[in-house]
Amino acid sequence: MIAPSLAGGGAERIAATICGDLSARGKPVEMAIYDVDGKTGRDPLFYLPMTGLDREDIRVLDLTAPLREPFCWLPPNLSHKSQAIHDFLMWRRPHTLYLTLDMVNLAGGFAGLLAGVPNIILHSHNQRPSDVYAGLGMEGWAAAYQALLERDEIRMIAVSQTVAEDYADWTDTRSDRIEIVRNGLDLQQLLRPDKPFLETFRSELGIPRKSLIVGTAFRFEEVKRPDLWLRMAGRVVKKRPDVHFVLFGEGALLERERLRCRDFGIEKQVHFTGHVNDLYHRLPLLDIFVLSSRSEGLPNVLLEAQAGGAIPVTFDVGGCREAMNDGVTGLLVREQSDEALARAVLKALNDPEWRRAATKAGRKFVRSHFSVNRMLSAFNRFLSAAESGVNRPIHSLGGHRTE
User: Would residue 225 be called left, alpha or beta, if left means φ above 0 and alpha means ψ between -120 and 50 degrees?
Assistant: First the structure.
C-alpha cells in the first residue's frame, strides 16, 4: 500500500482503515509513504494506529535519488515519486499494489507496470484533478489515466457514482473499468456524543449555551472556498446575530480568512480552532455543518457530521448528494453563491422541528449506508475479484445511492 502520508485526511484514513483490516485478517501488508517533511504542519503518521502496523513497518520513500530512464521522461511532479515507488516494488515484489490519490495513482501505476506487479488498484477520492488541483501542471494526466486503465493489471475504485462517471468522461474510458466502493465510518465513536466535553469546549470558545452553532471542517485551500463560507456567515449574522460559527482546520489561507472576518465585522461570532486530533469528538457541538467546496468526491466529513447529529448544508457538487438525503437529512444548494448558501442555512436555523427530524434521520442514514464494515466488505469483494483475475463491473459495491 502506498499513500503520500498517513496525515489527517479522508483518503488517508480510508487507506489506514483498509490496511488495519487486512492486517487483522492475516494478510501480509506493507506500506510506504513519502510526504514526511512537515511542511503542511500535519503529523505524517497521524493514522498509524489504525493500520495495525508498527512505525518500523512504514517505509519512507527516498525522492532525492538521481533520476534515470525512463523516469526522467516523466513530468517533474511525478518522476521522483515513480522511480522511488518502482525501486520499492522491485525490492518487495508484491502480488497486489494499492495506491491512493491522483499523484500516487499515476506515479505508482506506471511504476507498478514496469515492476511487473500483477494486480494494481488505483483509489480515487475526488473529481477529475483538473477541477481540484488548478495550476498543478496536469497536461497529459487524462491520457495517462486512460493508458493505465487499458491494462488488465489495473483496477480503479471511485468513492461515489459521481466520481466514477466524472473520471470515465474525463479519460474517455469504459465505465466498467471504474468500480465503486463508498467510504465507511467507525460509527461507534461518532454516535455517542460526550456532553460534558462538549459543554467544556463550548465554554472555551466563549459561545453562549443557547446559541445555535454553524460550523465546518476543511483545509483552508482554494478548492474549499473558505472566503465564500465566511461571506455566507456574514449574511447569516445579519439575520441571526445570535448564531456562532466554528471552523476546524488549517491551511495556507487560514490567516487570510481570519483577517477577512474583521472586514465582514463578524470576528466576535467566528471561532477558528486550527487542526484538532479528535474532530469526531467535537462535531456534535454543531447544529448545522456547511461545506462550500468547488469539488468533492464523497466527503467523509458530511457523513461524520450527520453521525454526530449536525445537519449538512452543502453545494450540490461531486458526491455530496450521495452522502446525504436532500430535504430529509440536510439541504443541497444548487446555486453556487454565498447568498444561496446563506438562505439554506437560515431555512434550517429557523425551523427547529425540521432540524430535530433531520438530525434523527441523518444518524439513521449514515448508520444504514456508511458503516466501516460495509465499506470493508465491499473492498474485500473487489480485492478478491481483482486477485482472482475476474474482470467484471461491480458498480453495486458499497450499496446505496441517493437519488
Answer: left
Query: How far, in Å, CA of 257 to CA of 259, rounded?
Result: 5
Closest CA to 223 of 129, 345, 303, 158: 129
Identify whether the C-beta of residue 149 lies closer than 8 Å to the C-beta of residue 365. Answer: no
Question: CB neighbours of 154 closer than 8 A, spacing ≥ 6?
Answer: 109, 113, 120, 122, 148, 177
- From residue 22, alpha-carbon distances to 1, 96, 122, 160 in Å are 11, 12, 17, 22
User: pLDDT tens-digit profile of 137-149?
Assistant: 678 899 999 999 9
Chain center to CA of 373: 18
φ, ψ dihedrals at 32, nearest 5°: -125, 145
Question: Looking at residue 393, what DSSP letter applies?
Answer: -
Q: What is the pLDDT of residues 45-93, one digit of tens each?
A: 989 999 999 999 999 999 999 999 999 999 998 999 999 999 999 999 9
Contacts of 367 (CB under 8 A, 6+ apart): 187, 191, 307
- Cα distances (angstroms) measured from residue 8 to each of 4, 49, 125, 215, 282: 11, 12, 15, 19, 15
Residue 359 has pLDDT above 80, yes or no: yes
Contacts of 224 (CB under 8 A, 6+ apart): 218, 251, 291, 292, 293, 294
User: What does the alpha-carbon distance between residue 94 and residue 117 come to, in Å, rounded to a whole number?
Assistant: 7
